[in-house]
Design goal:
Bound molecules: N-oxalylglycine, manganese (II) ion
Distance between the termini: 38 Å
Number of domains: 1
Oligomer: single chain
CATH class: Alpha Beta
Radius of gyration: 18 Å
Order of helices and strands: EEHEHHEHEEHHEHHEEEEHEEEE
Strand order of the largest sheet: 1-2-3-13-5-15-4
CATH architecture: 4-Layer Sandwich
CATH topology: Double-stranded beta-helix
Shape: globular
Number of helices: 9
CATH superfamily: Clavaminate synthase-like
Strand content: 15-25%
Largest sheet: 7 strands, mixed
């Protein structure tokens, strides 16, 4: 059966059925998924219970699977899965028990609660991210996605002119410092700051995107406070309800999203509930200022 797409509410999300992602992907299905990501940006595949190895193979069909975050920043985390290619974003400790709010595994994922595009702080960022839910929580724990193309389109003219030629400085620790996550100096400098135009063209759709997230540490050519306040306003604009889809997870859901056209954030949940999720990310092939 070929890939079947059913739009979900907002126009940048589709529910995708008809393919078993645990199997080796045929070229036709692969191309159909890329085209769907170009058209939508967020694809929800229900009922996909993949092993970590199958998840990596699926990701590999769309580019090189990223390992830099695991190697450079997440080395505090007891790597339960034992793979650099799969990030364990669960609240589960190395022994497989639910980790409490003060466990490092839990703390390090708190940064995901701010609007961000994966790897926006890296010179060579992330193209697609793939999240696969093993278990889901009752209360909260949604992942929300916002459409950066719609966010650009709904800017007022003065703001659009103001940001037209601006470059943002993105830093991994903009949020982690704010949260006072006690990372070492080596971790804080593991990723040098990246520079990105605040307005870019999404290659898949040819539409402009408002490229701003919680990693924006400064805006070049603006006083630091003014730039940081503007970044905050732009993020609030991006997160307006009409730009947002909220995904309530079911076990086996696999969500693939294009980081070049969206930001996302994880929502609060109750720490005693088991939220077991795995993530694979593919590396983009365009360095920061190459993306205009
Ligand atoms: C991520 C992320 C959000 C969530 O893994 O990149 O942002 O809801 N996750 O877990
Ligand atoms: Mn993320």
């Amino acid at each position: 059966m070929p890939l079947d797409l059913e739009p979900v509410g907002e126009e940048f999300v589709a529910r995708a059925t008809g393919v078993d992602l645990a199997r080796l992907l045929g070229e036709q299905d692969r191309q159909a998924i890329v085209a769907a990501c170009d058209r939508y940006a967020v694809l929800v595949f229900p009922g996909q219970h993949l092993t970590p190895e199958e998840l990596v193979r699926f990701g590999n069909a769309f580019g090189e699977v990223d390992t830099t975050l695991q190697k450079k920043l997440l080395n505090h985390v007891q790597n339960r899965l034992g793979m650099d290619t799969v990030t364990d974003i669960s609240n589960v400790d190395a022994e497989g028990r639910v980790a409490g709010p003060d466990h490092w595994q839990t703390i390090t994922t708190v940064g995901n609660r701010f609007w961000h595009s994966d790897g926006s702080y890296k010179d060579l960022p992330i193209r697609y991210s793939i999240l696969n839910a093993v278990t889901a929580v009752e209360y909260g724990g949604e992942t929300q996605y916002a459409d950066l193309r719609a966010a650009y389109d709904s800017l007022d003219d003065v703001t659009r002119d103001l940001i037209a030629d601006k470059v943002g400085v993105f830093w991994s620790h903009n949020t982690r410092d704010w949260l006072k996550i006690p990372d070492t100096e080596a971790e804080r400098s593991a990723f040098p700051k990246a520079r990105w135009p605040l307005v870019r063209t999404h290659p898949g759709s040819g539409r402009k995107v408002l490229w701003c997230d919680s990693k924006v540490w400064a805006i070049e050519g603006m006083p630091l406070p003014e730039g940081r306040a503007l970044a905050h306003e732009l993020i609030e604009h991006i997160g307006r309800r009409e730009h947002v889809y909220s995904h309530k997870w079911q076990p086996g859901d696999l969500v693939m999203y294009d980081n070049r056209a969206t930001v996302h954030r994880g929502r609060r949940f109750i720490h005693s509930e088991r939220r077991e999720m795995r993530r694979v990310e593919t590396t983009d092939d365009v360095h920061s200022l190459g993306y205009a």
